[in-house]
Amino acid sequence: MATSVPSVALSLKAGDSTPPSRASNLKIQHVILGDVLFKTWYPSYYPEELVGRDLDRLYVCQWCFKYCPDLVPFLAHRVRIPTSGFEGSDADHGQQKLCHARGASPPGQLIYSRDDYAIYEVDGEEHQVCPGTASQRLHKKPLFSQNLSLFAKLFLDNKSVFFDVASFDFYLLVRNPPPPPPPPHGPVAASQPQIIGFFSKEKMSWDNNNLACILIFPPWQRKGLGKILMGISYELSRLEERIGGPEKPMSELGRMGYLKFWQARVASAILGMRNKSTVRVEEIAAVCWMLPEDVMMTLQEMHVLATRKKNDASLVISKARVREWLSVSKVDLTPPVDEAGFADGYLVDVEE
Prior knowledge:
The protein is of the alpha+beta class. It has helices at residues 48-51, 71-78, 141-153, 226-240, 252-272, 281-288, 292-302, 319-329, and strands at 9-12, 28-33, 36-39, 55-60, 67-68, 81-82, 89-90, 95-96, 109-114, 117-123, 127-129, 138-140, 159-162, 168-175, 194-202, 209-211, 213-216, 245-246, 305-307, 315-317. The protein has a five-stranded antiparallel beta sheet with strand order 9-10-14-15-17, with helices on both faces. A four-stranded mixed beta sheet has the order 3-2-4-5, covered by helices on one side. The protein starts with 8 loop residues before the first strand and ends in a 23-residue tail after the last helix. Residues 3-18, 82-96 and 127-139 have low confidence and may be disordered.
C-alpha cells in the first residue's frame, strides 16, 4: 500500500452532496473503499509516481485510507494472512494483520455515540498507539489525516490548500453496524466500525469557523447524516463559547444543505421562546450559536420576516409565519445531536 503523500494536504470547504457533471480531465475514474466501488467526481492530488497518470480504479483501505493502484497489494494489506508464529501475529488465530487499523477502534478519541453512529476526534498533530495487534503498532495520525484529505478531494470541488494537517482537527463519522445473525455453526463474525464521513476544523480560526470541510462519502449520502456533523460542529462552538459557522464561501449545494439544517435550528429556537412576544436576531444567534448573518439569511429564506407597522417600519420575526412555514415544510425539529450522547466530561455546561 502507498504510504507516501505529497507535501501539501487539503483544507476542503463544505462540498457538494450530489455528483456534478464529470470532469473530462479526471485522472481517477473509480475508487474501491474496502469492498464498495463508486465513481469519483473530481481530480485529487495523489502523487503520479504512485498511482499513475490515468487510473480506472484506486484501491483505498476503509480503515486507514492508505491507497494503492493494484489489487494484489491491496488485498495483502487488508486480508489476514496465515503465519507460523512470527512477530506481530495474532496468538489466537495464528494470523498476521498487515493493516494495523483492522480490528481496532477508529483513530482518535471517542467523543459522541448515539444509536448506530459515533464521532471520533482526531488531532492532526499527535500520534497514538493503536491497540488491536499483539505488538500494538504505532498509528500515525498525520498520515491518516493526509490520506483522508486526498480521498475526500475526489468528491469535493471547492477547496484551499494548507501545508500541515497539524493545524486541523478531524471529526470522523463512524457507523457501528449491528452484529449479523449467528450462523448455524461456528462463531459470529465481528462487524467492524466503518468511517463514512467527516468534517475538519481549524484549531485556531480568526473568523470563528467551526467547520472547514464536510463530506459524507457517496454510498452513505441522502440519509440525513450530514446533519449529525453540522450539529457536532455547533456543539463545539457552544463548548468554546464562540458564535461561529462553516468556512465561506460555500458551494451552492453546500449552502442548500446548511440552509435545511439552519432552518430547523432557527425555527426550534424561535418557537421555544414562548414568553417573548418579539425576538431579535441577536437572541436567536446566541441561542443557536450561529452567526447573525446566517440567522438573517435563514429567516429570509423561510419568509417569516414581517414589517413593523409602527415606529421605524423595521423587520420583525413573525412566530405565526414560523408556525405556518413549519406546517408547510414538514421539517423535523428533533435535534440531530443529543447532548446525552457525548462522552462523560467532554462537553462543558457553559451556563454553570
